[in-house]
Write a structure and sequence with these properties.
alpha/beta; binds ligand C2E; single chain; binds magnesium ion; 283 residues; eight-stranded mixed β-barrel
Length: 283
């Protein structure tokens, strides 16, 4: 009977699997076409200082402006880009666009840095660090103005290519951060080996604040023990902002202080901040 059930299951699931497969093929083709036709855009979300809420940086977040489906969020297409290898080209597009934009903002006098997400596939390329150096040189951005966001699972494996890339990137002065911290199983022994500059506490932990603070407290304590910069992600309420300030997190990224937005809109926000500073010193 087991055999029969298996055959039945196959008959039931085959059409579904095939359509999912076809959908992925269509999407991969759409992605390739959109890359050729420049249907991707980089949005920027502010990162503010916990102390005075001044903008100290931005995170570059990729958006796909699909000709028929409209704006597609990254969680719906990045995994497929990673599986197909398209992330190499897209990742380079994001890095180049973000650093060009940062150069413009810095030229306009805004002191800020830029954070860019990196995928496992990119970091596993032997020439990734050299590519980062090339883009920095081409866009005339100093290494310390760039922060690359990695995740814990990416650095778990002790591969020579990964280590060489990380070493070379850090030698260029570029900072490394761990994104979505506190969501996975943290290998503390491994964390002590890798040199990182910043931990970004995942928004699922911030979401529980201020009522259920036990786990978040522990994660902040780990971050502070490691003596790195601590950023709280996903802060949406003034209560959460107060909590992370009292917990001595250094920076905040969250809807309370700004959603991801197109570059032109971010420019306007930076300009308003500067005008505010001017009127403060004049008063
Ligand atoms: P992430 O790197 O953790 O980026 C932060 C995500 O949290 C963004 O979602 C942002 O919109 C969202 N977020 C920030 N503050 C809040 C808040 O207060 N409330 C809520 N509900 N959400 C908040 P987004 O832009 O949809 O990006 C999702 C993920 O896609 C990113 O998570 C990152 O893992 C990935 N991603 C985005 N752009 C790139 C890219 O250029 N390359 C790679 N490899 N991954 C990217
Ligand atoms: Mg990130
Ligand atoms: Mg992430
Ligand atoms: Mg995150």
């Amino acid at each position: 009977e087991a055999k029969g059930a298996g055959r039945n299951a196959l008959r039931i699931f085959r059409p579904q699997m095939q359509s999912a497969f076809e959908e992925r093929l269509t999407m991969a083709a759409d992605l390739r076409q959109s890359m050729e036709e420049n249907h991707f855009e980089v949005y920027y979300q502010p990162r503010v200082s916990t102390r005075d809420h001044a903008i100290v940086g931005a995170e570059a977040l990729l958006r796909w402006n699909h000709p028929r489906r409209g704006m597609v969020p990254p969680n719906q297409f990045i995994p497929l880009c990673e599986e197909t290898g398209l992330i190499r080209g897209l990742g380079l597009f994001v890095l180049t666009a973000a650093l060009r934009q940062l150069h413009q903002w810095q030229q306009a006098g805004h002191r800020m840095s830029m954070s860019v997400n990196v995928s496992q596939r990119q970091l596993a390329d032997a020439d990734f660090a050299a590519l980062v150096e090339d883009v920095l040189a081409e866009t005339e951005v100093a290494g310390p103005s760039l922060e690359l966001e990695l995740t814990e699972t990416m650095i778990l494996e002790e591969s020579p290519v990964l280590q060489a890339n990380m070493n070379r990137i850090r030698r260029a002065g570029v900072r490394l951060s761990l994104d979505d911290f506190g969501t996975g199983y943290s290998n503390l022994a491994r964390l002590r080996q890798v040199e990182i500059d910043c931990l970004k506490i995942d928004r699922s932990l911030i979401k529980t604040l201020p009522d259920n603070a036990a786990v978040t407290n522990m994660v902040v304590a780990i971050a502070r023990l490691m003596d790195v910069k601590v950023v709280a992600e996903g802060v949406e309420t003034p209560e959460q902002a107060a909590w992370v300030r009292d917990a001595h997190c250094h920076e905040i990224q969250g809807f309370l202080f700004g959603r991801p937005m197109p570059a032109a809109q971010f420019t306007a926000v930076l300009q308003r901040q500067r005008d505010g500073e001017r009127s403060e010193t004049a008063a």
